[in-house]
Amino acid sequence: MPTKVTAVRIKARDQQFADPDRGPVVSPRFVLALVLIALGIAWIVYYYVGVRPDPTAFDSEGNPEGPSGPAFIGDLARWNYVIGFGLFMLGLVVAAHPSTPLGRGRGVVVGMLGCFLVGLLWICTYYVFANDHLQSIPVMNDLDQYNLVVGIAFMAVGFTYATKWE
User: Fold this and answer.
1) What global pTM score does this model have?
2) Contacts of 132 (CB under 8 A, 6+ apart)
3) For residue 22, what pLDDT is reported?
4) What does DSSP say about strands 18-19 and 23-24: parallel, antiparallel, or unpaired?
5) Which stretch of DSSP H or E encloses residue 18?
6) How far apart are CA 136 and CA 141, in angstroms?
7) What is the per-residue pLDDT across 42-85, written as a single tens digit (0 to 9) for each?
8) Biggest alpha carbon distance in the chain?
9) How far apart are CA 146 and CA 150, in angstroms?
10) In angstroms, rounded to a whole number, what is the distance separating the alpha carbons of residues 48 and 39?
11) Residue 15 banded pLDDT, cuts 50, 70, 90
C-alpha cells in the first residue's frame, strides 16, 4: 500500500508540467495571455510594415500614397496602435493571475519590475530622440506624443503585478 508521500509524488508526476508546490506551468489563462501578446505584436507589425502609408512615397501626380493592404485597417490609422498595444497590455494583465507563472512567486516581481522598466525606457527613449532622431525609430515615429501614453500604460500594467506581490 503506497504511503501518502508516494501517492502525492505519483499524482504530481501524472500532471504534465506541474509543480505540486507552485501550480501548473501551463494553464489555459497563460496560453490566452501568450496569444493576446502575440496578436498585439503581430497587429502592430502588420500595420507598420504592410499597411501604413509610407510618408516618403508619392504617386505620379506628386500626392502622398495612401495605405496599402486591407482598407479597413488602413482607415483605422493610429487606432491600429491602440488595438495592438491594447491586446499586448491585456495579455500582460491576464498573465498577472495566480494561475500563471507570472502571477505567483518570483514571477510577480519579474512582471512588475519588467513592466516598470520597459515603461521607463520607452519614455526615456522618446525624450532622448524626440527632437532630431525619432524618425529613425520604427513605431515611435508614428506615435509622437502618444509614446508617453504607451510608457505610462506599461507602468500601469506593472501596478497590476504590484497588487499581487506578497
Assistant:
1) 0.79
2) none
3) 64
4) antiparallel
5) strand 18-19
6) 7
7) 999 999 988 887 766 666 666 666 677 788 888 888 899 999 99
8) 87
9) 7
10) 14
11) low
Q: Is 118 in contact with 164 (CB distance < 8 Å)? A: no
CA 62 to chain centre: 38
Q: How far apart are CA 148 and CA 159, in angstroms?
A: 17
Cell numbers standing for residue 127: 525624450
58: helix, strand or coil: strand
Greater confidence (51 vs 94) lies with 94
CA–CA separation, 153 and 76 (whole Å): 21
Residue 59 CA to residue 130 CA, distance in Å, equals 29
CB distance 109 to 165 below 8 Å: yes
Give domain limits for the chain: 23-162
Q: Are 119 and 94 in contact (CB under 8 A)?
A: no
